[in-house]
Amino acid sequence: MSDCLFCKIVSNEIPSKKVYEDDRILAFYDINPAAPVHILVIPKEHIESLAALQDEHLGLIGYLHGKIRDIARDLKLADGYRVVNNCGKEGGQEVGHLHFHLLGGRKMLWPPG
Ligand code: 5GP
Ligand code: ZN
């Protein structure tokens, strides 16, 4: 997707502070952190949102969550963390490329706003 912000981050057209990368996924620091640790984890393939996920993507999403676990462990978020997906307009999604927020380093509140 040529006009997708996160596809441009994947292609290095837009720089990012990367935490982890392989052929399937990329993890990078959020530009406007909502917690002491705020990382976005995305598939490199352009998938619009969780609602646009196809069954063929389910393995990829399981793999991505295993990497979230590994990143949280590497960053020593031993007291816990939160993984968030904002899906669609009412879900608060602003960037139309599937991404999971990994938030940590402070006590999270519930319910979210
Ligand atoms: P959403 O609201 O779609 O779930 O989250 C989009 C996230 O992308 C926001 O937390 C926002 O701060 C982050 N973001 C937007 N533009 C950029 C950017 O150019 N670079 C990085 N690293 N994060 C961005
Ligand atoms: Zn994209």
Keyword list:
single chain; 113 residues; alpha+beta; HIT family, subunit A; 3 helices; binds guanosine-5'-monophosphate; binds zinc ion
Walk me through what this model shows.
There is one protein chain. With about 110 residues, this protein is of the alpha+beta class. Helix content is about 25%, strand content about 20%. The chain contains three helices and five strands. Strands 1-2-3-5-4 form a five-stranded antiparallel sheet, with helices on one face. A hairpin with a 7-residue loop joins β2 and β3. The radius of gyration is 14 Å and the shape is globular. The N and C termini lie far apart (about 30 Å). Bound molecules: guanosine-5'-monophosphate (5GP) and zinc ion. The site of guanosine-5'-monophosphate has 14 residues, from β2. Guanosine-5'-monophosphate (5GP) binds next to β2.
What small-molecule ligands were found? guanosine-5'-monophosphate, zinc ion
Q: What is the β-strand count? A: 5
Radius of gyration, in angstroms, nearest whole number: 14 Å
Strand order of the largest sheet: 1-2-3-5-4
The structural class is alpha+beta
CATH class: Alpha Beta
* Count of domain modules: 1
pLDDT averaged residue by residue: 97
Strand proportion, as a percent range, falls in 15-25%
Q: Helicity level, as a percent range?
A: 10-25%
